[in-house]
Design brief:
Length: about 200
């Protein structure tokens, strides 16, 4: 028996982290690991993964609607125009994580996203690092925290001027947007992205 999977009252098998908190369970059941292929959605995920660095995902998830309101629903064109006045407002917004470096990184990354339009664009760049295979973890301990592809993606984004996009953060992004499937074998969500079996 896998102690990392819990069968809920609905009869569905989920990892421990998604089994007790209703907000995390809903996120796990509906969103996590599903493909994101639009620029605004991808910019939001990159931004939230950066804010999550060093914190629990549940903190970010509980503040997500506040983040969306504060960052113009993560429209990179609008965020790229944020200046000192908007930055000061964000630093005083108790509804988000008030970390100056992460706030400035989000504004910087919006500008980098705009510049990428002259090349392939953010979506094509990120998805070009999709690996040819995905992990098949049976336990949480078997889930990697980074990969050769997340390292390469991190380097590529940094070269394009992005920040707070380290290889561990980028692997978390790849998991969140379905580029890799790290749902545990036996979870009801395994293979739900339509990308991996």
């Amino acid at each position: 028996m896998n102690n990392d999977l819990i069968i809920g009252p609905d009869g569905l098998s989920r990892p421990i982290w998604a089994a007790s908190d209703p907000l995390l369970q809903d996120y796990y059941d509906r969103e996590w690991g599903m493909p994101i292929r639009d620029k605004q959605g991808l910019f939001e995920r990159i931004s939230l993964e950066a804010f999550q660095s060093g914190l629990s995902w549940s903190i970010i998830l509980r503040k997500r609607e506040n983040f969306r309101a504060a960052f113009s629903h993560f429209d990179p064109d609008k965020v790229a125009e944020f200046g000192e006045e908007e930055t000061a407002k964000l630093l005083n917004d108790s509804g988000i994580v008030r970390n100056r470096r992460k706030i400035l990184a989000t504004i910087n990354n919006a500008k980098a996203t705009k510049r990428l339009r002259e090349k392939a664009g953010l979506v094509d760049l990120v998805w070009s690092f999709q690996p040819s295979s995905t992990p098949r973890p049976q336990t949480l301990a078997e889930i990697p925290t980074q990969s050769a592809e997340s390292l390469a993606l991190s380097k590529s984004l940094k070269k394009e001027g992005f920040s707070f996009v380290g290889p561990t953060t980028m692997f978390a992004l790849m998991e969140a947007i379905g580029m890799v499937d790290t749902h545990l074998l036996g979870s009801h969500r395994r293979g739900s992205s339509g990308i991996w079996n």
